[in-house]
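Q: How would the structure tokens look for this protein?
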Amino acid sequence: MKVLIATQKPFAAQAVKGIREILEQAGHETVLFENYEGEAELKAAAAEADAMIIRSDKVTRAVMDAAPSLKLVVRAGAGYDNVDLEAATEKGIVVMNTPGQNSNAVAELAIAMMIYMSRGQFTPATGREIAGRSVGIQAFGNVGRLVGAKAAALGMKVLATDPFLSDEQIRKGGAEPVADVAELYRSCDFVSVHIPATPETIASIGYELISSMPKGAVLVNTARKEVIDEAGLEKALEERPDLKYITDVMPGNYETLRENFGVRVFATPKKMGAQTAEANVNAGLAAARQTVDFFATGCTKFKVNK
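A: Here is the predicted structure in token form.
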């Protein structure tokens, strides 16, 4: 089978080497396609692919239309909203992710962001320590649990909410459960967001939740841009000069936010949560192994479309 490794944001060289070794030892042909400009180039590259391994690359219906032999798309990472799942299902294409492989990298970034904002983005002004403060974890999955564990180790009180987990499961994960998202925001000095972008969650974090946070609170988003109601965020920051926002996903109104609120707001230039050598290798190798297993045995353990 021909496997296209399509990454506008390339894997680390070590990851590429490992991916190729895994695939080629199993008898598959690999095609490395990096730093491409846009969909037209991706469509051309995918024309003869039986499988694709991607990162944040967008696999649209048009890309799938251009790849008549495509049977599998593996997203090296947890989120998969960059793949048109409906189109994939219609065409009989299996879409998988690699859950957990980037979790530690994202969790470390979330903690670093809390410290960065508590220290005023490292300006000379007097900052605050995070020990003794509370952090709310919105979605207590792989990343959320790691954020909670690291925060607890630094002396923070950890609260969490997750609609898919019982209170007992949250307690076993090391956090104190709260009744709902509204209580989480009202109760915590920091809220760390780890929800996916779904029809239910898009723009779900807005003025009402953000403005309910305690004095001096910080909202930390290493999830998806779309889950924030950016107009509501701007309004909350305008009315509450004590609140802060830091994100790993650039807001559409970032220039306005920075102009109006200065060091109370920060966004990384590109999504950096999974940008560690370790996460890069882990996710890439997992994607390669899942590709091999799919063609060898039909394994669809990490399938995300219906």
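The chain has twelve helices and twelve strands.

The two ends are 23 Å apart (CA to CA).

Upvote if useful.
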